[in-house]
Write a structure and sequence with these properties.
The protein has 15 helices and 18 strands. The chain has 490 residues and is of the alpha+beta class. The strands form four sheets. Strands 6-10-11-18-17-16-15-14 form an eight-stranded mixed β-sheet, sandwiched between helices. The chain has a five-stranded mixed beta barrel with strand order 1-2-3-5-4. Helix 7 packs across helix 15 and helix 13 runs antiparallel to helix 14. The longest helix is centred in the middle third of the chain and has 23 residues.
């Protein structure tokens, strides 16, 4: 066999040749269930109690070295890495010779006793080994991983194999999801499931994905939010409900947007947006404490402290503070466009007041909100499902929570006046007729539900992926989604 360094050496064929030899040697190259006594990380962590004990461990071969009568390999599993030591005089002759059939990336089971080498490395001295699975392709090089960023996302399994940080991010994601559920469950919320497909889409301003049900011969929309169905459950008598699931928005891809993402929505009867601000500034720090062990984190070079209280800033005040203009006081679209242009932002000439305010918020205000901040009291045009403010009916009882310049949560006192909701749906439908594909559809059944009586209710949505971005100091949402959407290879 030609050495690996020789030009033209075929790594894949060499591994297939070893596969053939494994079968000829009587080994199952794809393995069977293997009963481990310990994960690899457990052996390292519990060495004091395991020294001299016999263990059964398993993992992927991450490194291997041979010295004639002895050989070493490093096994790796989800818990960590551990060295295994093979001695010719301790193994069956054939078993030791068969070690040459092993490649990096193969899966191996080992039975042996735990000890420390002279250099102090915790090791298992093999008494026997079992082949558990052949890797027909070599793993990515450990020290450099995948150089191409798109390759990291497209072949995420290789990224995870080579990149400990990628695995750590997804561990934090799992802990974050678990913490959110545990906290809501302890608060008396019930987790519910709502339709992923429906004939009417609502709960957010977003363009939906459309599919078709052949048997019923109807077009269906993938949900953009879970809001309207969860509020129907509150009408039905559940005081506290939540859902954590995937939602789908037919929008562009960016560092903070993926067309498919995870959204937590929860609704609490007999509460308002003030109650949810208090809860949110307790919830997020507690999630951080459980997921990363601290309520202080660093995001893109900024130290952020999550502990309450978080400042509350009225949206109108925020515009004035960060732009020098009272944009919410401008009724003339031209005045708003001219003021934005003087700041270097060209608004679309046909942009509605709501679209213009949203763009101004994203461009000038949001980047300034590094420490946790609530922006409160949004205009009705921006909040078609939120209750009007008692002191100013042109505003709503709504807040958005920002951390690290990222919108993490959106919440409001829910609009439970069916007549007002119908008028707002009609206004949104008019916008759709004018070509706004992100405006709400008319949902007559939801109006009927409100007519049966929705109690005073507060609801909130938290972008789980964005929260994990903050907790892991990830600049892109693609880092925190196991398999982000990518353009097909062309």
């Amino acid at each position: 066999m030609a050495p690996a360094s020789e030009p033209g050496f075929d790594f894949l064929q060499a591994r297939r040749d070893k596969l053939t030899r494994l079968v000829a040697a009587g080994m199952d190259p794809w393995g069977r269930a293997y009963r481990r006594t310990h994960a690899l990380g457990q052996v390292t962590a519990d060495y004091a109690g395991l020294e001299g004990c016999r263990v059964a461990v398993a993992g992927r071969i991450a490194a291997r070295r041979s010295h004639g009568k002895t050989a070493f390999c490093d096994l790796e599993d989800a818990s960590g890495q551990l060295q295994v030591y093979f001695r010719r005089d301790r193994l069956d002759t054939g078993k030791y010779a068969d070690l040459e059939l092993l490649d990096l990336g193969d899966h191996l089971g080992v039975v042996g006793r735990v000890f420390k080498t002279r250099s102090g490395e915790i090791t298992v001295e093999a008494e026997d080994w079992t082949f558990l699975g052949k890797a027909l392709r070599p793993p990515p090089e450990k020290y450099h991983g995948l150089a191409n960023v798109e390759s990291r996302y497209r072949q995420r399994y290789l990224d995870l194999m080579a990149n400990k940080r990628a695995r750590d991010i997804l561990r934090v994601r799992s802990l974050t999801v678990r913490a959110l559920r545990d906290i809501l469950d302890a608060r008396g919320y019930l987790e519910m499931d709502t339709p992923t497909m429906s004939t009417i889409v609502g709960g957010a301003n977003a363009r939906p994905f459309i599919t078709h049900h052949n048997a019923l011969n109807v077009s269906l929309y993938l949900r953009i939010a879970t809001e309207l169905y969860l509020k129907r459950l509150v009408v039905g008598g559940f005081d506290r409900v939540y859902e954590m699931g995937r939602v789908f928005r037919n929008e562009g891809v960016s560092s903070r947007h993926n067309p498919e993402y995870t959204l937590l929505e929860f609704y609490e009867a007999y509460s308002d947006y003030e109650d949810l601000m208090t809860f949110t500034e307790q919830l997020i720090p507690e999630v951080a404490r459980r997921a990363i062990g601290s309520t202080t984190l660093t995001y893109q070079g900024n130290e952020i402290r999550l502990d309450p209280p978080w400042p509350r800033i009225r949206l109108r005040e925020a515009f004035s503070r960060y732009t020098g203009f009272d944009f919410m006081g401008m009724a003339d679209p031209k005045e708003m466009h001219d003021a934005a242009a003087s700041l270097g932002l060209e608004l679309p000439l046909n942009a509605s007041r709501a679209r213009a305010l949203d763009a101004l918020l994203d461009h000038f205000v949001q980047p300034e909100l590094v420490q946790p901040t609530f922006l409160i009291d949004y205009p009705v045009e921006l909040s078609p499902l939120a209750k009007r403010h008692r002191d100013d009916p042109t505003l709503t009882c709504r807040f958005e929570a920002f951390i690290g310049g990222i919108e993490v949560a959106n919440a409001f006192s829910e609009l439970n006046d069916p007549a007002d909701q119908r008028e707002r749906f009609l206004a949104q439908a008019a916008q759709r007729d004018r070509g706004d594909e992100e405006a709400h559809m008319m949902d007559d059944d939801y109006i009927v539900a409100l007519e049966y009586g929705l109690p005073p209710t507060a609801g909130e949505g938290i972008g789980v992926d964005r929260l994990v971005m903050l907790l892991t100091d990830s600049p892109s949402i693609r880092e925190v989604i196991p398999f982000p959407l990518l353009r097909p290879r062309g």
